[in-house]
Amino acid sequence: MRRALLLDLGGTVFRSGSEMMGIYGEHEPAVRPVVARRGPLGPEPDELWEAMLREEITEREYWARRSDEIGAALGRDWTIQEFMHALYTLPGEPMMRPEAAALIADAQAAGVRIGALTNDLKAFHGDGSMSRDPFIGRLDVLVDGSVTGILKPDPRAYAMAAEQLDRPPSEIVFVDDMPWNVAGAAEAGMIALQLDLVHPELVFDVVREELELDREAA
Fold it and tell me: What domain count does the chain have?
């Protein structure tokens, strides 16, 4: 039985909101003072991000606050979905990480079952561009906490994904960019790997090793 691959979406498969905010600032000068504070990727300290890492606010609360701040800078009263749509439809900017796309293509060619475990696909993107991305339709399993009502790192979220992937947790390689979600996967018995938002490409080589993809290619 091959190991399966379970991926977070935003930040892991698709580029992070922090990355996209930086690019958005290049298109919209009015928001540059706000997007200078974008987690580990901004030139200015992001106290709101640090509060999230200390679990004083949730990830959803972080993005709601950023949405409100950027909307105010633009003079817009918009929803979180409208904010995310603005970030992820910037001209000429691909959503998917190239390293993720290459890994997924190779894993699928090798017969690896691939699932996504996300908290916010519908909540943040609705029927927008990320939800319509062809990659979503090629997944073997999609578990969206904004549909199930069970968010990572609740153990039930990982159990649900494992059941649908038809693999024991110990045979599932899980990747996420948020430390508490990675810790939750490890506690659930999965092979849990954290993507570093500063160097996102590094984790994909480790995933390949865990899935033995490069060994097969050799």
Answer: 2
Question: What are 89's two structure tokens?
Answer: 């439809």
CA distance 42 to 45: 7
166-214 per-position pLDDT tens digit: 999 999 999 999 999 999 999 999 999 999 999 999 999 999 999 999 7
User: Which structure tokens are listed for 21?
Assistant: 């905010």
CATH of the domain at 204: 3.40.50.1000
End-to-end CA distance of the chain: 20
Its domain, for residue 23, covers 17-87
CA distance 73 to 174: 37
Q: Could you tell me which residues come within 8 angstroms of residue 98 by beta carbon, excluding any fewer than 6 positions away?
A: none
Residue 96 DSSP symbol: B
H-helix or E-strand containing 146?
A: helix 145-148
What pLDDT, in 10s, does the model give residues 121-145? 999 999 888 899 999 999 999 999 9
Quick one: three-class SS letters along 180-212?
Answer: HHHHHHHHCCCEEEECCCCCCCHHHHHHHHHHC
Could you give the CA distance from residue 113 to residue 199 in angstroms, rounded to a whole number?
26
Backbone phi and psi for residue 6, each to the nearest 5 degrees, phi listed first: -125, 120
